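Hello Y.,

Per our agreement to keep a running log of every chain we model this quarter, I'm adding this entry. I've kept the format consistent with earlier entries: sequence first, then predicted structure.
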Amino acid sequence: MVEYKDYYKILGVAKTATEKEIKAAYRRLARKHHPDVNPGNKQAEAKFKEINEANDVLSDPEKRRRYDELGANWDAVRGAGPGAAGGWPGGFRVETEGFGAEGFGGFSEFFRTFFGGGAGGAGGFEEFDPRSRSGRHAAADHPVDITLEEILSGARRTLQVGGKSPHRAEVKIPAGVREGTRVRAGELMLRVHVLPHPVFEPKGDDLLTAVRAPLTTAVLGGEIQVPTLDGPVGIKVPAGTPAGRVFRLRGHGLPRHEGSGRGDLLATLGVELPTTLSGREKELFEELRSLGR
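Predicted structure for the entry above:
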């Protein structure tokens, strides 16, 4: 028996939630359960997959409408069998490689049954409506998850088109795509969805991140390591640098959406204050206080 999934509960939002509230909840939860933040944690992987599925439905107006209309009658829909929820048997399926091959791209049996894949769909596939809004068999528009690293290097996905004569085709997603970019793959139209990253936040062609420096480095100056998509980069912190200063690392952002080259990485400095002090350290801070510092 396929159990009903409450996507609103999964994202922790009300059924009246706005698109902005859904997006904010998704980004918060996705960052928390991202596999890069929880390496080897199978529970986090499963939760991350569930969060992405909920967002795929609730962030799509048409899918959300169908889900809201039929969700209350799930028992009747389930009893009618695959495709009863308005799905279309024999539809297209997307099998992801790389990040998706580890299980984060496949949708649940509930999703496949509700949206037309049925309980017999193969695991690891995202199934979607192969019809356009006009109702005619045409190019489908379906989200494909990619990482920030894949925006930098490009990505490949293996597609399997269902029907009487299923076949596989490899699709190349070029470097430099953005959230919402559409990539045509034969009869299919794939819509890019950029997964939240635990370290970087994209802003146009730039990336935002936060770095921390010890109090002594901020006061006396020194060097700290800044994470980038290309690996850590050392930067010099001038003496007397206040918390909140933004360092710009040119050319360490995303490939420019227009033109050549890459955007920049903007790293906001935070200062680490000591939480415990030795006797000698406390004496030194007392001396500083006596000097009016």
